[in-house]
Amino acid sequence: MKKQEAMNWKTFKDLLLENPSLDLQFQYGEDNWVDASYHITEIKQAPITSVDCGGVMNAWTEVIVQLWEPEVRDSERAMKVGKALSIVELVEKTLSLNPLATVKIEFGNSEFDTRQMFPNDITVSGDNLIVDLRPDAVQCKAINRGGSCGTTESGEECCAPAEKPKIQLVNLTAAAETCTPGSGCC
User: Fold this and answer.
1) SS3 (DSSP) at 64
2) What's the angle, vertex CA 156, arms to CA 158 and CA 139, rounded to 5?
3) Residue ranges per domain, the chain?
4) Pairing of strands 57-68, 39-51
5) pLDDT tens digit string along 55-108?
6) Does residue 42 sit in helix, strand or coil?
7) CB-facing half-sphere around the CA of 59: CA atoms within 13 A
8) How many other CB atoms sit within 10 Å of the CB of residue 165?
């Protein structure tokens, strides 16, 4: 699978700001659309810190926009981009969103397991601003840095640092006197 290029929050928000009067639609697959009665239930900012299989620490931030389809359809038209922007404005009064954060849209319904997806492409079609969503993919950061993943034929770890640190074991009981029953030491 081709690695998805992530869109940052500033780019995403700027595209919304350019089209406030359009209906905001989300497509999550071929002919699969988030129902027009969806709600934006929350916007989360998640700082991520991880250590990959090569022992390298990684850090990034995600802004996650959560969509929810109510059980009872309460609208025939999707919300206007301007309405979505009013929710963003309300959130940003309390939480300063990182403009360089990776954007993900979180969505699921009874026929589609909840997951976080990337805005792949955002296009104008008639009265609609369409956000095409594509799934995130698992990746090996060691491979992305030019390494490999797995083990070699001799069983060596490929993603580990090039040189493993040598650890000297010390027998702590040999250097100290030991306590024996009746000696009065304890």
Assistant:
1) strand
2) 25
3) 9-144
4) antiparallel
5) 889 999 999 999 999 887 777 789 999 999 999 999 999 999 999 999 999 998
6) strand
7) 3
8) 5
